[in-house]
Amino acid sequence: MALRACGFIVFRLASCVPPPDNIEYLLLQTSYGEHHWTPPKGHVDPGEDDLTTALRETKEEAGLGAEHLRVIDGFVQELRYEVRGRPKEVLYWLAELKDPGTAVTLSDEHQDYRWSRLEDACTLAGYRDLQDTLRAAQTHLEARQDKL
Fold it and tell me: What is the value of pTM for the model shown?
């Protein structure tokens, strides 16, 4: 059975930059292993639904709770890959940070964070499936720019 994790691609809108370059994504750098960069995510606890997991993990890893986020309708991406020979599934929703000035508070699982525009975020992300997910988020947001 595959490990299952859920999280959010969190973005904020920079007020001093015209669209679509005003979209910045939050990536966290792990404090373990290869110190890779990833959006906040984590394993589903027994009896927990996927969206609740995404909210809990984003609060635990970045200090951003449901009160700080606005979930964007119509976007969820599923990634499938192997970790140490075991299958893993990750679901990502898209969420806007309501107040772009809200501070990120890292857990012990992470050592750094960055707000980055799409191409820089893709460079940090490193993995093709995560890069594709970030690009899909950007496309989704650009298509609904009038609603942001």
Answer: 0.92
